[in-house]
Amino acid sequence: MDLDLDEATLEFRSEVRSWLRSHVRPLSSMDTADGFEEHRAWERSLAAERLSVVSWPAEYGGRDASLLQWLVFEEEYHAAGAPGRVSQNGIFLLAPTLFAFGTDEQRKRLLPAMACADEVWAQAWSEPESGSDLASLRSTAVRVDGGWSLRGQKTWSSRAAFADRAFGLFRTGPEGRHRGLTYLMFSLRAPGVTVHPIRQLGGEPGFAEIFLDDVFVPDCDVLGEVGDGWRVAMSTASSERGLTLRSPGRFCAAASRLVSLYRSRPDPALRERVVDAWIGAQAYRLHTFGALEQPPSGPEVSVTKVFWSELDVAIHETALDLLGEVAPDWRDGWVFSLSGPIYAGTNEIQRNVIAERILGLPR
């Protein structure tokens, strides 16, 4: 594997670094109404430079950048301390699914608005009593003239408190747990939609419940084939567990901050944990570079998901142990890291996937 970057990629890195240095500024929490709009404005400033979705085709707002250049962008983005991406559900989860299963009309209609944050998307997977068992969902979509009528309830929907649209799975047939499901996109402003924000321990609504009461969705907002939603949803899940949502730049930046913290507060009792965290981040980076030509997919992304989520917790808990307190500049990252082993399918589920589908172990 050649780790030397070509001239074009080095120039791209320099451009991104310079732009971020001039534009990054602190924003309010995206889990407040005002903060959400601040983050939307930030996304638009990225989009104006075609930096919001660098690897997308130019016709949708991107730069046709290679996967390597996207990784370089991510490294610079996180090293600069740039804000979290309020559009991440759309650009990192839904968009790869649209490229794989969407129609030309859907891509032309939805991707440009996503790239410039005119439409911010919520993820509407979970339902009450379903937990990580997505296939047990009970929300339905019933055929009506020109489209579908949605009924049911979604919960723990990321970004739904302030987002514009959502995507989710709905039962359209009785064929069994994984069949008869359809992937649908819908407006959170449509008649029949009620959004109840869920306040977290800090008091801000990072999630929401979505109640659907005869919500009309036109046929053009079915993603993939009717009844084939499970296969489409697994494509989205692969993006969430794998590379597109959690690039190594985020963990390398956090590990570098941890090393700097250790140098300012050396504690021999924690030295090995600091070294392990830094090595873990670098190993994930090198693994990613090595997989550029054929990024992992299917059950292999479960290995990646377990690794990065546990690495993130280790980095932040080591930092707090060094500090001896929950310091503000590490607090948000630590709290978010704790959710990593849960979202995108719990690590317990991922370990089952690894055991059964990769190692061939019995149930």
UniProtKB/TrEMBL annotation:
Keyword list, A-Z: FAD, Flavoprotein, Oxidoreductase
Gene3D superfamilies attached to this UniProt entry: Acyl-CoA dehydrogenase/oxidase, N-terminal domain (1.10.540.10), Butyryl-CoA Dehydrogenase, subunit A, domain 2 (2.40.110.10), Butyryl-CoA Dehydrogenase, subunit A, domain 3 (1.20.140.10)
Cofactor needs: FAD
Top-level taxon of origin: Bacteria
Pfam families: Acyl-CoA_dh_1, Acyl-CoA_dh_M, Acyl-CoA_dh_N
Residue ranges constituting the Acyl-CoA dehydrogenase/oxidase N-terminal domain according to the UniProt record: 7-115
Family indicated by similarity: Belongs to the acyl-CoA dehydrogenase family.
Protein's recorded name: Acyl-CoA dehydrogenase
